[in-house]
Input
Amino acid sequence: MTPDEAARLLAACSAFDNRQPSEIAKQAWASALRDLPLDNDTIDAVARYYSAPAQQGETGRRWIEPHHVRSWRTKIREERLGVTIPAYEPPTEPETGSDFINRRRAQLTAIADGRLAPIPVQQLTGGPHPRIARALTAIGREIPGEDDQPYMPADFREAVGMEARPPELRVPCPKDGCRALARQPCKTPHGRRRTQAHQARIDAAQENQ
Output
């Protein structure tokens, strides 16, 4: 915003608060709003400020300042964008990453300016995959005790890529220094979890088949 544009903006403000714009005032406002253009949104921000209902505890005459103009102008432009960010309209030809960024910024600016209607984001439809749907039925079930069957359905294990429980975990480990209970992994002498069961446990599981 140039000083001359700031003078025009201050003239719009004076219509509401009867201020007397001065040379130093337009210089100050131009500096505070140097990154904003003097467009319809900037002028409307002044009107929005003075037409907004009084806030709780607000007393006395209102006096607009540069930060009010900036805040209300942002609000006006955000209203055009909506709560949901509009969908991206891709070009007909391939684009690079920098092309996408520049095109996206230009689209959002055009929507905020009111020059382009936003493209609504399409809502995804359809439910989860049947395997996932079956697995979700396990949610909310009571967790069984140690002697019960595993409560995690095979469908769930398959859906999330988990391997089935090794058959040797059905029996306790007979190896001294381990003695892991059924359904619990074998441990090293230092108490760390082993990735594989002890051979004695594997043999015991095969004998109990």
